[in-house]
Amino acid sequence: SSSLKGKDLLTLIDFSSEEIHDVLALAAELKQKQRAGERYTPLAGKTLAMIFEKPSTRTRVSFEVGMTQLGGHSLYLNSNDLQIGRGETIADTARVLSQYVDAIMIRTFAHSKIEELAHYATIPVINGLTDDDHPCQALADLLTIYELKKKLKGIKLVYVGDGNNVAHSLMIAAAKVGMDCTIACPIGYEPKENYVKEAVKAAEQTGAAITVTHDPSEAVVGADVIYTDVWTSMGQEQESEERLSVFQPFQVNEQLVQKAKDDYIFLHCLPAHRGEEVTADVIDSAHSFVFQQAGNRLHVQKAILLSLLV
Ligand code: CP
Ligand code: NVA
To answer: Which residue intervals define the domain Aspartate/ornithine carbamoyltransferase Asp/Orn-binding in the entry (predicted)?
Structure first.
């Protein structure tokens, strides 16, 4: 039984460096088992409820498949089909679902909503993305970087783009494992102050350097990892035209990546928009490991499910 048993995963701010390393080690072990075709079903009889208030390909499929592989069951619940869509409160939904299932994964808008759900639920709650945080993604990113670079501490990660949920989680995750993290974003699109503060605080323990800058060309000099995400996140569709022009200088293209290390790797949480935040020649190049990264969602989430549930 793990030290994380019964806990929630709302944000990696709440996880220690050691807990993060434990999850990554377990994920690597589960990936090995999976590859060897070994049956491993410690979640037999357990059910995960998955509530989606936004679309998803990776999160939905990888959590569902992960539960199946571990011998458990999952329920896909579109919020429009739940009574939440007709005004039942989050608190009541949490108290009811706690009677039926063993954990809840939710993808929603305001981060305060998942905090409220976790407050009223008596079972673990897992963040499948909020407007502010995407911790499962960041754990998959760490596993991918570790597989490719054989270490995390001392790696230079540069995220180019919007200071959004993905940037927040990545910055926290990097700080906790001693990886340098620079966020290069347009003025007015910086990561939220509390995330920067938490990252800087964690970095004091690990020696990581946390930087926010507005100059992408300077930021990527000597980068081991270049990471980007969409310019318009889910829920921001009405801003998309403005964002398209504001973010143009932050496009990850051949010219920008020239300045990174020769063996730099490119990552993107996906879905990607070729020709916007990244050009096809970068995301489809030999430096890009975005599908290995997407694949690792399955393994880290299985590790999370196991750690929180048994
Ligand atoms: N990266 C990610 O979370 O993808 P989905 O939106 O497809 O779940
Ligand atoms: N920042 C993106 C990530 C999608 C996985 C969004 O929130 O839409």
So the answer is: 153-307
CA-nearest of 103, 227, 121, 128 to 170 is 227
Please tell me the distance from the alpha carbon of residue 145 to that of residue 159, in angstroms, as a whole number.
Answer: 14
* Cα→Cα distances 90→53, 101, 235, Å: 12, 16, 19
Q: Is 97 found in the same domain as 152?
A: no
Q: Which residues are annotated as a binding site?
A: 56-59, 83, 107, 134-137, 165, 229, 233-234, 269-270, 297
Six-digit token string for 70: 């571990």
Co-location of 157 and 221 in the same domain? yes
Same domain, 40 and 149: no
**C-beta of 230 in contact with ligand 2 (< 6 A):** yes
- φ and ψ at residue 170, rounded to 5 degrees: -65, -45
Provide the number of structural domains found in the chain. Answer: 2
pTM recorded for the entire structure: 0.98
Q: What is the CATH number of the domain that holds 122?
A: 3.40.50.1370
Q: How far is the CA of 207 from the centre of ligand 1 (A)?
A: 30
> Are 57 and 177 found together in one domain?
no
- Please state the residue numbers annotated as binding site for carbamoyl phosphate: 56-59, 83, 107, 134-137, 269-270, 297
**Whole-number Å distance between alpha carbons of 39 and 248:** 47
ipTM: 0.99
Q: Two tokens at 160?
A: 């180019």
CA of 107 to the centre of ligand 1 (A): 10
Q: What is the pLDDT along the chain (310 residues), one digit of tens a residue?
A: 678 999 999 999 999 999 999 999 999 999 999 999 999 999 999 999 999 999 999 999 999 999 999 999 999 999 999 999 899 999 999 999 999 999 999 999 999 999 999 999 999 999 999 999 999 999 999 999 999 999 999 999 999 999 999 999 999 999 999 999 999 999 999 999 999 999 999 999 999 999 999 999 999 999 999 999 999 999 999 999 999 999 999 999 999 999 999 999 999 999 999 999 999 999 999 999 999 999 999 999 999 999 999 9
In a domain, 239, yes or no: yes
> Are 272 and 301 in a shared domain?
no
Structure tokens belonging to residue 97: 């679902």
Pocket test for ligand 1, best of 50, 52, 53, 57 (most atoms within 8 A of CB): 57
Q: List all residues whose CB is within 6 A of at least one atom of ligand 1.
A: 56-59, 129, 137, 269-270
- Domain holding 26, by residue range, is 12-133+296-309
